[in-house]
Amino acid sequence: MAKKKPDKASLDEAAARLRSAGLRPTRQRVALAGLLFGKDHHHLTAESLHAQAAKAGVRVSLATVYNTLHQFTEAGMLSQVVVDAARSYFDTNTGAHQHFYCEDDGALIDIPGEAIAVAGVPSPPKGMAVDRVDVVVRIKRA
Amino acid sequence: MAKKKPDKASLDEAAARLRSAGLRPTRQRVALAGLLFGKDHHHLTAESLHAQAAKAGVRVSLATVYNTLHQFTEAGMLSQVVVDAARSYFDTNTGAHQHFYCEDDGALIDIPGEAIAVAGVPSPPKGMAVDRVDVVVRIKRA
DNA sequence: GCGCTTCTTTAGAATTATTCCAAACTATAT
DNA sequence: ATATAGTTTGGAATAATTCTAAAGAAGCGC
Ligand SMILES: [Mn+2]
Ligand SMILES: [Mn+2]
Ligand SMILES: [Zn+2]
Ligand SMILES: [Zn+2]
């Protein structure tokens, strides 16, 4: 039997996490949090999470998946990765780190934050502050 | 009087450039090339170029603007900058360089290639080769 | 220039990702 | 239990981009 739904413990943990983010632990949010944070870090899109939820037997509308992803991002539980103009990726790894992006198949691979060093970033224009520095290493089949 | 259309010399130059890229110098392509390459490097979107063309009295459909931007990019005359999931930016600066991206108003500002150094990029997975390394410095009003 | 072939342009329809909306729910506080 | 404010949802609406097929223009040999 495939392990489809996250266990109760991780769901309770998810509910607690939501409460402390000021979000009501609704059935949908708890279930999505369970799917997102119960396992290793990974990358996803609204569509892929929606599909995963369906596969796990969780009924959620796509609109709610979008709402939830944005709320979780707002709350710092997810980060957004911009690598392709056509799709929005989200990342359960919110620490400072970078990515390989495979232009052939759209796959994202983490590069640990300590690995890469960016030097020489000029100071931003007056009145602006650096929010973050994103590095995308675009790769292709050799 | 505002200088609307590029002068004849730069249009001839544009036509030559197109021919050597294997593209027929049609009225539309020559005009767009004139708007794109006659001045300093800059960033643009399909919509903004389409609007600029209209203002200069050049009749071109939006579909042709999209086609042309892609063909020019293919030919190495433009590069594409991915910073926002909602819009596709193009850049007349095709040399190696990086960008500030202002999250407040969507403005792009060049960072010279020599300024930034990225160290520690791990080698890509077997069979893959690095196409390029993009650095986006996201800034916000302080 | 003429005719032929091939490439281009274009209006408008189609596609895709995402957001909006208003009505039907539901978590939480009292 | 009730009331209230926050949530979910199906479906419509947006917006950027691509597709289609028909009409137009460029290049070539004559
Ligand atoms: Mn990761
Ligand atoms: Mn889109
Ligand atoms: Zn990541
Ligand atoms: Zn640039």
Summarize the structure.
With 142 residues, the first copy, chain A, is an alpha+beta fold. The first copy, chain A, contains 4 helices and 7 strands.
Keywords:
alpha+beta; 4 helices; homodimer; 3-stranded mixed beta sheet; DNA-binding; 142 residues; 7 strands; globular; 2 domains; 3-stranded antiparallel beta sheet; Arc Repressor Mutant, subunit A; binds manganese (II) ion; binds zinc ion
Helix segment tally of chain A: 4
What are the secondary-structure elements of chain A, in order, as H or E?
A: HHEHHEEEEEE
* CATH homologous superfamily identity of the largest domain in chain A: Winged helix-like DNA-binding domain superfamily/Winged helix DNA-binding domain
Shape assignment of chain A: globular
Q: Radius of gyration of chain A over alpha carbons? A: 17 Å
Structural class of chain A: alpha+beta
Spatial strand arrangement across the major sheet of chain A = 1-3-2
Q: Into how many domains do the coordinates of chain A divide?
A: 2
The major pleated sheet of chain A works out as: 3 strands, antiparallel
The end-to-end distance of chain A, rounded to whole angstroms, is: 39 Å
* DSSP strand count of chain A: 7
Q: What is the CATH fold-level name of the largest domain in chain A?
A: Arc Repressor Mutant, subunit A
* Portion in beta strands of chain A: 25-35%
Oligomer: homodimer
- Low-pLDDT stretches of chain A are none
**Most extensive protein-chain contact, per-chain counts:** A-B, 38 and 37 residues
| Mean pLDDT value of chain A | 92
What's the CATH architecture of the largest domain in chain A?
Orthogonal Bundle
CATH class of the largest domain in chain A: Mainly Alpha
